[in-house]
């Protein structure tokens, strides 16, 4: 994990109360970087757990879940890619993936394996904080919306069922595990069947309007969503691509 020096900032914006009980996992084999980022996150009111290798992180995160994890790629014993894949097999935990600026293949692979977001290195700690806040807000807003709308927390479109209160998605009554980002994308498309959603609209739905995300990020998420549904049903084809325009959920 590479971080630009001079990027540390303190929690002077009044966010401490908001994040007091939220726990962030940092996984990186560089202890100096871990200590630096941990100090910044704790200044913002987060609780932080640090891990120096993937195997150690996997065992503890399964036993003691956190609110969000930040994973670097290069680590001993189990790298970030494998850790991401194994966490995704068990959990929809929000995950931010770190990759080098010139390693586009790693970025795309991370998204296809289930990362909710990625940051390229070197990065400022301010950027990391904003991405963490944005992803946690999306997760909390999705849960709060479901909890506050008991009658509307269940979205049914033909064979698709989205239960927001339980963050549960089903196809033909079979569970399809989706990450926070994937769930929000499917929800945005299925809410208005037949209506074309541009990539910009999907970015706003999944990330919010204050976060810049490359169009290819949405494409990678959609590919992974399709793959997950096709693991349940080989004939799944409800999410259509309109080249040069965007995506839509096909009415059944």
From TrEMBL:
Gene3D superfamilies: 3.40.50.2300, 6.10.250.690, Winged helix-like DNA-binding domain superfamily/Winged helix DNA-binding domain
InterPro entries registered for this protein in UniProt: CheY-like_superfamily (IPR011006), OmpR/PhoB-type_DNA-bd (IPR001867), Sig_transdc_resp-reg_C-effctor (IPR016032), Sig_transdc_resp-reg_receiver (IPR001789), WalR-like (IPR039420), WH-like_DNA-bd_sf (IPR036388)
SUPFAM superfamilies: C-terminal effector domain of the bipartite response regulators, CheY-like
Known DNA-binding region: 152-251
OmpR/PhoB-type domain ranges (all copies): 152-251
DNA-binding keyword on record: yes
Domain (Response regulatory) ranges: 23-136
Keywords associated with the record: DNA-binding, Phosphoprotein, Transcription, Transcription regulation, Two-component regulatory system
Domain of life of the organism encoding this protein: Bacteria
4-aspartylphosphate: residues bearing it: 72
UniProt keyword annotation of Ligase present: no
PANTHER family: DNA-BINDING DUAL MASTER TRANSCRIPTIONAL REGULATOR RPAA, REGULATOR OF RPOS
Descriptive protein name: Response regulator
Annotated source species: Acetobacter fallax
């Amino acid at each position: 994990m590479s971080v630009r020096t001079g990027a540390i900032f303190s929690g002077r914006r009044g966010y401490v109360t908001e994040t007091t009980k939220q726990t962030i996992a940092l996984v990186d084999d560089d202890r100096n970087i871990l200590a630096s980022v941990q100090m910044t996150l704790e200044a913002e009111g987060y609780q932080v757990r640090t891990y120096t290798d993937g195997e150690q992180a996997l065992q503890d995160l399964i036993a003691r879940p956190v609110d969000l994890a930040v994973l670097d790629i290069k680590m001993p014993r189990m790298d970030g890619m494998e850790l991401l894949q194994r966490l995704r097999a068990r959990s929809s935990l929000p995950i931010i993936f770190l990759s080098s600026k010139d390693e586009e293949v790693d970025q795309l692979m991370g998204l296809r394996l289930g990362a909710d977001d990625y940051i390229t290195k070197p990065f400022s700690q301010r950027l990391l904080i904003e991405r963490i806040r944005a992803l946690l807000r999306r997760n909390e807003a999705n849960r709060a919306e479901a909890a506050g709308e008991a009658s509307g927390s269940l979205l049914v479109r033909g064979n698709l069922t989205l239960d927001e209160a339980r963050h549960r998605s089903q196809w033909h009554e079979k569970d399809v595990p989706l990450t926070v980002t994937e769930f929000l994308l499917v929800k945005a498309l299925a809410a208005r069947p037949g209506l074309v959603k541009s990539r910009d609209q999907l970015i706003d739905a999944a990330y919010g309007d204050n976060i810049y995300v490359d169009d290819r990020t949405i494409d990678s998420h959609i590919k992974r969503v399709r793959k997950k549904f096709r693991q349940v049903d080989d004939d799944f084809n409800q999410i259509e691509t309109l080249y040069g325009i965007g995506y839509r959920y096909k009415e059944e």
